[in-house]
Design brief:
By secondary structure, this protein is of the alpha/beta class. The protein has 14 helices and 18 strands. The protein is globular.
Length: 552
Amino acid sequence: MQVFGVLSGFAALVWFLVRVVPKPSRASYPCQRAAFPIASTFVLWAAAWLSGLLAVKRLGRVTRSHPLLAAGVCAAIVFAASARLTLPISSRANSPTRYDYSPQQRNVPLGVARGIHPGRVTWAHDPSATRWDGQRESTSSQWWMDSSTDQHKVDAMLSTCLRKLTGSATDAEAWRALFAYYNEKARQLNRRNYQPGEIVAVKVNLNNSNVAGPGNIVNVSPQLALAMVRQLVRQSGVRPEDILVYDARRDIYPAMLSKIWAEFPDVRFIQADPPDPAQPDNPKYGGHRGLQAADWVEGVEYSGHHYKDAQLIPRQVRDATYLVNVAILKAHSYPYAASEGGDEGQTGVTMCGKNHFGSIKGTPELHAAINTNQEATKNAYSPIVDLAACPNLGAKTVLYVLDGLYCARRHQSFPLHFPNPPFNNRVAPYENTDWPASILASQDGVALDSVGLDILYSQTKNNDDPQNGNHPRIMIRENADDYLREMALAPHPPSKTVYVQGGQGVASLGVFEHWDNDGTRQYSRNKDPRNGKGIELLYIPIAGQAPTTASR
């Protein structure tokens, strides 16, 4: 077995180097994620062997006079190295991961709510918008195809969210209100709208994207990305050439490029790598005009912490005037994910806050700070605060959106059914057409992620999978809401960190709160519209969904 382990480790190392060295972004591919732990274990084993041989050689004179001691040392080295090669990676973790998260206080808002209607979150839910059949291994039936996801209904859901969020009668009025609010609050420009030449960057979460396509692993959907571009161009009057869609840590998958370029060939895209021949050509201009690799420049500072490549953001994003944060309603970790790659993850959730890990070059440098088995202990510093408050990045945000059409339980995951209200999806067989089918929006990123976390946590209950050891189909990792407390209370956070951006202390980045319970889903402003200081959730059921007490 040990010989097999050595050969497997060597093969994994060669495969990883041959594939990743010419193109580093391939390290994110599922096959390379699987190969890397095996290859790294082989390297550690080989290093242990070489170190042992060198040590024995250098101690030659001593060991020749003590042959029994020499034999014992060599045997110990061989045993330890071989044991490390055969032990599962999880057994070497610093400590077992806890999936014991639960809300500690409900209807206790923290921080300062943001927005035209402070703390407002809108949630459109239309089950008829998503009709993927759940055939995970299919290449002809995939969740992101128009045969699976209704573009017109996605357009309507986003429109509804925007109107309800701003209290506007039309989409155009909603965008004027959004830009006016941002320009007055952030740029001290009195009620000014977008002006031609001002760049609007749209950060989409494409963590599982590559030039070959996403398969059936979850990314931001091309339908929601197109709906957002349609809104910006047709309702807000933004010139297509002033729109920049990006994920600087991944490559844009073909379906998203084709879908947006078919209507707006002047929209630009930024990705991790130069254009690849596998990516589609621009239908108007030919070639890959409008698709660029990130041009890295310094753009982020971290309060009291020193990183290298994590300071770098794309020049194209630094030069943008506004930003729209389009994330996914998604957890980040799950411990029983053999069918989805096996790596359980690092942190609790991936929504608007962590979306900016795809805006920086040195993302791996921040992983320890969010990993609850490493630096992300209770009430610890969070780099998510600095990313959200950075003047070159998160502080330029006009709108936050969560793509909840097809949600996920971990960083690399197939779409997940939500069995509990208000979704009531079938969970078995998996091959069915019931999905979360939601879009959420807010001007307050902390409030939006707070609602997203409550939704995800509500689906951990009554959701055991008999095909997977009766474990819950979704689980929330410890300390999942710590980053939200840090953001809400940034001037005096639980970690005691002094958050500073641009020489100024960071103000509250929004309001954090948990709803009262999973049945009524009410926040403090729902309960007391006049005196409530926290979140106001407007749940908007479409296509026959029964309204709840939190609906308006």
